[in-house]
Specification:
globular; 116 residues; 5 helices; mainly alpha
């Protein structure tokens, strides 16, 4: 069981980093998972980075943990990740920083916060 949990965590870390890479490569957007030009929101990039499991609970919980701590208003919404992406996040680099920070925290390391 412990091995399975570690494997799932590692897969989530890899997927969040891949999602950040997709946003940097294709661009970032609001309001839709992927727009007509291929730009993606955070959740759209996570879905695109997935081979079979969509956006997992591990990934959602990792992102929500940061948002609850650093952007309390996002935590009051049914989907705080979408809220933050659509209404708080200012650009693709901030979206990438959130994904990378969640990946780092899941790994046990800590990056300085720049999430508004």
């Amino acid at each position: 069981m412990a091995g399975e949990v570690m494997r799932d965590r590692l897969r989530a870390v890899q997927k969040m980093r891949a999602a950040a890479g997709l946003i940097r490569e294709k661009g970032w957007t609001r309001g839709v998972l992927t727009d007509e030009t291929g730009r993606m929101c955070i959740l759209g990039a996570l879905y695109a980075s997935s081979t079979d499991d969509g956006v997992t609970v591990i990934e959602q919980d990792s992102l929500r943990k940061i948002l609850r701590r650093e952007c309390p208003v996002a935590g009051t919404w049914a989907n705080p990740i979408s809220y933050w992406n659509d209404y708080v996040c200012q650009n693709g680099e901030q979206a990438c920083e959130l994904l990378e920070r969640a990946a780092a925290e899941l790994e046990g390391s800590d990056l300085p916060s720049r999430v508004p």
